[in-house]
Amino acid sequence: MTANPESDLVFVPLGGSSEIGMNLNLYGYLGKWLMVDLGVSFAGDGLPGIDLIFPDISFIEARKKNLLGIILTHGHEDHIGALAHLWPRLGNPPVFATPFTAELVMGKLEEAGLLGEVDLRIVKDGGPIELGPFSVRYVPLAHSIAEGNGLLITTPKGVIFHTGDWKLDPDTSIADPATEETLKSIGKKGVLAMIGDSTNVFNKHASGTEKSVKGPLLDLVEKQQGRVVVTTFASNVERVESIGEIAARAGRHLVIMGRSMKRVIGAAKKCGYLKNFPPILSEADAGHLPRNKVLILCTGCQGEFRAALNGLAEDINKNIGLSAGDTVIFSSKMIPGNERGIARLVNKLVLRDIHVVTEKDDNIHVSGHPGEPELIKMFDWIRPKIAIPVHGEARHIEAHAKLAKTLQVPFVFRPENGTMIKLAPGDPEVVDKVPTGYSVLDGTRLLALSSNTLSERRRMMENGALMISLCYTPGGDLIGPPVIQPFGLLCHDNDKELKLDLYTLIMDKISGWKPAIPASAEVREEDLRLAVLKLFRHETGKRPLISVRITGLLKDGP
Question: What's the pTM value of the predicted model, to 2 decimals?
Fold first, then answer.
């Protein structure tokens, strides 16, 4: 069956329910829509030239006149990163965010030339935000960023608790998260559905507190004799604050490297955080200090090629560098999908005799997402009628759903991107599957993930490419020899035998074309392309991208 847009309260994830990242969730009622988050994911090696992946927004774009607003739960890229790119296609809806999240968003909008165009509304006291049939309040929750929030969405058909990303950390120093009593009171008033974070469901232990990291980090830094580099997620303001304090206590000057790290620190200070942060020394000045007097806090914990840490590993920073005996501390976790990039980075450091420490070596990182004990507590406090796990791959969502069933939640769903779930009236059920997919940012332009452009680029990356040009006179005579230009192929590396085979094949093919049989340039281009492809498959086992262009040949051929 399908939903009745005039009476049914529905939930539709368009991103983040088939992967970790690019979160985009929709709530629909009375023909109106509310969007929660608009995030990105980061491309891997399989998408050459691509940095960012976005959810396909075609479903809500077709209904943009009824999109009442976009509410951002917090400032992580997988929740806000697509806003500046996709907002213009959504009919100019207002965007709601708490102050720190808004600061991060404004930086992105400025880069995109949209600052001042987007109706960005800063919510300072939690709301309520009144949008048609939806009344929304922010519920502050601890997370690995300042101002993490869940959302309490009230509708005439019931109350929804959208947790966003969260953990339990009552002792956090930069936030005042909702207490157990507050969350229990929400549950006692009645919650129709809880849409919840699945990222850390496989962790059988609680995630741990930020303050538990500070002691081990300080001990580790104080033991080092050379330069120390600490890399972490720039958005983790509390971790950044701890590292600043550690630098001061260890008698080291603090150096900040990486654009996103500097941007987040600036936004945090503007919003009243990092009040006791130590002075920041420039890279040039730090380069003249004794190695045991410097601590560098930088970006690059996920092996990003353009991040500051990779520049240090490559020894291409003109102001400050690393030497044998220095230490790099990864105060972070390895995000699934980034394993190879991080391994490459660590190998670069190890080959230079630089000591590397990760979370596997010491207690220097805690997650910002709930482990199983925290999920159990939240279910006990909120007591929803419906559980809908999101923010995870299929395996995360499945495990979260099984946990909810063991806790006797009456209705449990396992959504994929595009699953439309009717929440009310009546018993909840899956009622539709809406179009969904992915788009990518190629330079400054958006492309569908299924684009021929990307298919060709992947093929060139894996198999190489070959261009063949033939030029004829109007009378049908070939002007000069064929022009053959290989890219990334064996015949480009002085493989004389393959070069000769290729040239012979082309000339045999040309001579075999019968003038008495009319053929367009396009037909002969394809005939030659297939023959060359067959040669390369036989000789090299590769399927290169082959382009053949014939010019001067009349439509009916010579």
Answer: 0.88
